Automatic annotation (TrEMBL):
This is Oxaloacetate tautomerase FAHD1, mitochondrial. Pfam families: FAA_hydrolase. The gene is FAHD1. GO terms for cellular component: mitochondrion. SUPFAM superfamilies: FAH. Keywords: Hydrolase, Metal-binding.
């Protein structure tokens, strides 16, 4: 019998729950209102991509954006988890990208349609190695950065998040039960921008981890 381990959470086929507009500076750069409640959407587990494989530019888009985010890996499931106990449900973290077909998202927004094809396509969720919970003593004080071809595009700190990690775990689990192996993407700071085929993306959590991905065009 094999024991599953959250250190390979991307193999579990569990939910990827994403929080949008969780940094006021990013909400403003896309001309969105700063939310008073978390904005949630989902990615499919088939969206995971790991270092060594490329991010594939979807053929239906011509404006693919990077969004660097802190991912929270759930270690213990639960429903209606109180904020005071939320951190007991965290197994660890991952550095994540929420790749977004911005043109498709804009179209969906204007038509009042869901963002699925803008957010959940194959390779839309690049993830780092699993980061055990002890490596990040305070998820509210994590410095994230992202470079495209060595040029710094995003640099932010999770202290700027509108809704904290414990708040998000509690809020989400009121409506959507959390399960072991789920991943929560906590939103992106400002600086999102378009990537092109052959670009090299490098991202990091200061002092903890870095990762890199290449962008390729999907030709079928
Ligand atoms: O900008 C968006 O599409 C919403 C989002 O995912 C974020 O704020 O991280
Ligand atoms: Mg995002």
């Amino acid at each position: 019998m094999t024991t599953r381990n959250t250190s390979r959470f991307w193999e579990w086929g569990r939910k990827i729950i994403c929080v949008g507009r969780n940094y006021a500076d990013h909400a403003k750069e896309l001309k969105n209102a700063v939310p008073t409640e978390p904005v949630l959407f989902l990615k499919a587990p088939s969206a995971y991509v790991r270092e060594g494989s490329p991010i594939l530019f979807p053929r239906y888009s011509s404006n693919l954006h990077h969004e660097v985010e802190l991912g929270v890996v759930i270690g213990k499931g639960g429903t209606a988890i109180p904020q005071s106990r939320a951190m007991e449900h965290v197994a660890g973290y991952a550095l994540c990208l929420d790749m977004t077909a911005r043109d498709i998202q804009d179209e969906c927004k204007s038509k009042g349609l869901p963002w699925t094809l803008a957010k959940a396509f194959n390779t839309s969720c690049p993830v780092s190695e699993f980061i055990p919970v002890e490596r990040i003593p305070d998820p509210g004080d994590v410095r994230l950065w992202l470079k495209v071809n060595d040029q710094l595009r995003q640099s932010g700190c999770t202290s700027q998040m509108i809704f904290s990690v414990p708040y998000l775990i509690s809020y989400i689990s009121d409506f959507i039960s959390l399960e072991e192996g789920d991943l929560i993407l906590t939103g992106t700071p400002k600086g999102v921008s378009a990537v092109q085929e052959h670009d090299e993306l490098q991202a990091g959590i200061e002092g903890v981890i870095t990762m890199s991905f290449r962008v390729e065009r999907k030709d079928h």
